[in-house]
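[SOLVED] Need 3D model of a two-part complex

Original post:
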Amino acid sequence: MGIIRNIAASLVLLRQSSVKNNHKVIMSRRLHARRTDGVDKNVWVEFTQLAADYKAVNLGQGFPDFSPPQFIQEAFCKAINGGPQMHQYTRAFGHPPLVKSLAKFFSRIVVQDIDPLEDILVTVGAYQALFCAFQGLIDEGDEVIIIEPFFDCYQPMVVMAGGKAVYVPLRPREGSAILSSGDWVLSADELASKITPRTKAIVINTPNNPLGKVYKTEELQMIADLCIKHNLLCFSDEVYEWLTYDGAKHIKIASLPGMWERTVTVGSAGKTFSATGWKVGWAIGSGNIIKYMKTIHQNSVYHCATAAQEAVAHGFEREYELFGTPESYFQQLPTMLHHKRKKLASCLESVGLQPIMPEGGYFMVTDISSVKVDLNDLSTKDELYDFRFVKWLIKEKGLATIPVSAFYSPEHSKEFDKYIRFCFVKEDSTLDAAEAILRKWSQKE
Amino acid sequence: MSIARQVLNCSRFTCRSAHVTCRKTFTTSQHVMMSRHTHAKRIEGLDKNVWVAFTALAADPSVVNLGQGFPDIPPPSYVKEALAKAASVDRMNQYTRGFGHPSLVKALSQVYGKAYGRQIDPLKEILVTVGGYGSLFSAIQALVEEGDEVIIIEPFFDCYVPMVRMAGGKPVLIPLRLKSGKKTITSADWFLDPDELAGKFNSKTKAIIINTPNNPIGKFVPVFFLQVFTKDELQMIADLCIKHDTLCFSDEVYEWLVYRGHQHVKIATLPGMWDRTVTIGSAGKTFSVTGWKLGWSIGPEQLMKHLQTVMQNSLYTCPTPLQEAVAQGLLLNYELMDQPECYFTSLADELEGKRDRLADIVEEAGMTPVIPEGGYFMLVDVTALNQDLSHMDEDEAYDYKFVKWMIKEKKLAAIPVTAFVGEESTKDFEKYIRLCFIKQDSTLDAARSILKSWTKV
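Solution:
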């Protein structure tokens, strides 16, 4: 057991004994299950609170501050008024109209016959799809390779499933200026060196949060080759699949030869239709793997809410017909965000910050190493530089972002503590407000 | 073969189930892959599920469905309106607070503060989950692990056993027993033997799960029994929890559906119990919107914080507009509490009428109903019909065979009660089926027609 887990466990015991002093003694033996050890901290809880406390212009947490498109809102309204069955239980593994429309839509993309009942599981957001994958497929002692920077939930989910996280970082390419997320690459040798006989799965996220990297075919092929060679599973988090810019193409690793039978692909209605609060997601994969996730689902939440699934089904029916045309939301949203991406990047550059242009997604990572500020807040002195910087930026300038080292493992976070993440899926007025803050700040220097 | 029995025996996973067809053709690479990629051990033997099987059978539109427990009556209109209104607000379509939407946890704190007679901290003592089901999952994952025993009263809502198993715990079953010699049976005639219960507690006992009103009996039993535990019975359970320092998970999703002459008592309000009890509620059952899948857990901070950790690492947050709508529904009814217009009261009144109607229908047909004191299920003893099922699968319990036969031959769906008991108790429950009566009068009338013509033959 790692040092960090030991410390975490000791802290838990310390906390338990202090709780005992304040309350009646409950459970002279251990109270909470070991699976919750060390997974109780969460970066979002801390920073969302801080942004709210200081009423900061919030480019931190990743959700739109504009509304979902009208057609999907109308579909939801229609479902709400659609008769009593819309408010009662539907099929546990996914509302029939939704799994049918997902199967139809994605079969065309991966050129694979996707069975709506066998190969799809609808979940409470992509988050729960990931949970089902880890719980259903990862056992005590299994190793899971996570490519850094990673969406923070992967690590605690691996831990809660009894697995061991093994990290491989994306690194800025040697030599040339780092201008784009495409300049952050995975070393094939480094990745191969992390595989052991205990490795069960690898987790990839493309487009990537926070960097925005969109993995190219050859990069995915390299990962696929290793998966096939070592008989690994692949969990592919593709929630931002429609958000690619400058001609970058989103490739599904499950569509590469030999990968369908070993890949779980995770998607999100929240990110697809700008309705994160609906919490509708899915996992698509070979029925042989999805069936294990269904067992977790049926013993954890069992059903997902009916009306929202009905609305998302209509959304995909519409997009199936309009796919590739200018009316498709899957064209309109990236076009709208392309403009916002440009706006944020120029604004950051104009004040001397160095953004890394994301090829996809709706986040932008910025190098802050050239910024000279006096971080004299004693309350944060033991934290990493980017954490301190972000807190200072919220408190002193009223601008909220997220520190990028939060997306790194403890072993690598110190190497990457000079970056912060901005979210640009925001109204232009929000981006303008951020710009005003940054201009004012740079003018003072 | 009972689901619970398979689960308890940790049977190996097989492809067979009522509706899933097994893909028999595997390529060589898939074979090799599958032998390497076995599922995680935690799901061993947990794949079967009575609902998956019977929902499919009852899905035929010509079948009168008194099986699965959901209303075919509409929810109150103000709840639907509140949802439509919430969905029209931009911010309500995006993420809200992970442990529960602020307006919902505040409303819950108000409503339950009154019910518990204590201040309930909306941020630290409440967790909003995906249905009562999600609360059970969070509580069990947070607080039960390998080496822990969990006492479960039979018949039990079927998910308790697989959830405890999945957490590595060991379910310890104790049946409700029927007082003998009575003609008209109510759920009050099913009781827990105090000595038998005391005998189940030991140093490994981590928790006891109770369900009141109970499903199915209508007492404290899950799905089958619709019984409301009396204060004395709850005190007996409470005394044992305190003596053995165990936790109590109290599934009270049917808490508002209590019929005349009975009272729902929250075990968490008994002395010494608040600090060791997690109480579970459900918007789906409260407002007749099972398809919204929203529920909640209420308990002391030292327990709730662990449930919150599970939530944060499993699905993080529940849907926003649904939570906002439930908050509005709760606030509206909070103002009306104890008045006849309050939905919590009016629904119970409406259902009492349906309960009595169904009991008459069942008796007319020569079967014996167990009149529930609460909830919306009724257990029915089918012994008197003497239905010959010898032509059916030998291996299944009588009630499984009976229900399958009844769906196919009579186009009436129910749920077999032995799906909710362990192997040892099968013989005591296999003559019972469970009927759900939160149905339109027309549905109940259709059931009457079927039963009338059945007994005439």
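Edit: Residues 17 and 25 of chain A are 9 Å apart (CA to CA).
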